Amino acid sequence: MNDNIVRDKSFAFAIRIVRLCQYLKDDKNEYVLSKQLLRSGTSIGANIVEALDGVSRNDFLNKMGISLKECSETLYWIELLYQTDYLTQTQYDSIRSDGLELRKILASITKTKKDSRDTRR
């Protein structure tokens, strides 16, 4: 990967999500919530890659917006796993911190692009 912070961070986050889901299945025998987490957590980066290859400003904004929504959903599943005792406090704090950082970046990108689009009208 070359120098794109949001793509690199989302890829690293997806790796953590995959490993967390493997842990949940192998060590905790949890299959339903982990599948939801896997889908949303890996979708963030996939949509970012699509956004970066977007054919228009609107396409870029739409895909980044989807990434932001998927990130929020992922944080929901992480919270639920923690509140139902599948994650320890340490595990929760670590992965949640990465997710919040990624969501903050995506929110900033989305807002900046939306604002620049709106000022061009």
Mind explaining what this structure looks like?
The protein contains four helices and no strands. It is elongated, with a radius of gyration of 15 Å. The mean pLDDT is 94. Helix 2 packs antiparallel against helix 3 and helix 3 runs antiparallel to helix 4. It is mainly alpha-helical. It starts with a helix and ends with a helix. 85% of the residues lie in helices and 0% in strands.
Q: So what's the oligomer here?
A: single chain
Strand content: under 5%
Calculate the mean pLDDT score and round it. Answer: 94
Helix content: over 70%
Secondary structure tally, helices? 4
Shape type: elongated
Straight-line N-to-C gap: 35 Å
Structural class: mainly alpha
H/E element order: HHHH
Over the alpha carbons, how many angstroms does the gyration radius reach? 15 Å
Please tally the β strands and state the result: 0
Biggest beta-sheet profile = none
Q: List segments where confidence is low: pLDDT < 50 over at least 5 consecutive residues.
A: none
Characterize this entry briefly:
Helices cover 85% and strands 0% of the residues.
SSE blueprint:
Blueprint: H1 5-28, H2 32-52, H3 57-83, H4 89-119
Helix pairs in contact: 1-2, 1-4, 2-3, 3-4
Jot down its keywords.
mainly alpha; 4 helices; elongated
